[in-house]
Design goal:
256 residues, eight-stranded parallel β-sheet, 8 strands, 14% strand, globular
Length: 256
């Protein structure tokens, strides 16, 4: 099964609208001479306040998709501070990151909420990028596999196999996010195989082989080639290195 790689940039809480537009322009310029047939799927996720302006920059660029960093699962209502999927679709957003460890840790989002978001995103015809991963304490306790599998099972609850195959998963060992530490490529691939096996148990082998699973955790231009050489790593969810156009473009090249 040939799965098209994805390189996604999560800009987190960085960049004003002006800075987001400049970064977008830099990425567009950086990929313009690359072989379009060999490009991975490219996704960028600015902050909410920059989505409209970045969407305008991407109107003539078919190679880069726009993602939101989050959403709420209700279509409308008295939910101050939240953003609906209709609002995101209105800005040509096609992907939504959910379940990121920072949302889980700082904003107490649990598996039940992430599942509700995944269902709502799919019902609205968008692609959820569902994050999972373990803390250093959980890794040292030897529960990485069971913890990550549990996150996946709960995130995919009540979703039909035909919809599960549209989902993107991002494995992010929490201890490697923003720390400069990178999970060994072979170990990252091993955990991603665990995730794929879990999907197979939930939705069958055929679906599991179609689902694209990304690695995230201090991904850099110097690490991407080795990561992409692994059997089950289908791309990267990039944090800090996506904030510099030249670094992000180098990561894109490493996935070609």
């Amino acid at each position: 099964m040939s799965r098209k790689p994805i390189i996604a940039g999560n800009w987190k809480m960085h960049n004003t609208t002006k800075e987001s537009v400049e970064l977008t322009k830099g990425i567009i310029e950086g990929i313009k001479d690359l072989n379009k047939d060999s490009l991975p799927e490219i996704v960028i996720a600015p902050v909410f306040t920059s989505l409209c302006s970045v969407a305008c920059e991407l109107k003539e660029c078919k190679e880069i998709a726009l993602s939101s960093q989050n959403c709420y699962y209700e279509p409308k209502g008295a939910f101050t501070g939240e953003i609906s999927l209709d609002m995101l679709k209105d800005l040509n957003v096609t992907n939504v990151i959910i379940g990121h460890s920072e949302r889980r840790q700082y904003f107490k989002e649990d598996d039940e909420m992430i599942n509700k978001k995944a269902i709502a995103i799919l019902e609205n015809g968008l692609t959820p990028i569902i994050c999972c991963g373990e803390t250093l304490e959980q890794r040292e306790m030897g529960v990485t596999d069971s913890h990550v599998s549990s996150q996946i099972v709960k995130a995919l609850e009540n979703i039909e196999p035909s919809e599960i195959e549209k989902v993107v998963i991002a494995y992010e060992p929490i201890w490697a996010i923003g720390t400069g530490k990178t999970c060994d490529s072979q170990e990252a691939n091993r955990v991603i195989k665990v995730i794929r096996n879990t999907i197979a148990q939930v939705a069958g082998n055929a679906v599991a082989e179609k689902v694209r699973i990304l690695y995230g955790g201090s991904v850099k231009p110097s690490t991407i080639v080795e990561q992409m050489a692994q059997s089950d790593i289908d791309g990267a969810l990039v944090g800090g290195a996506s904030l510099k156009a030249e670094d992000f473009v180098e990561i894109i090249k490493g996935a070609m």
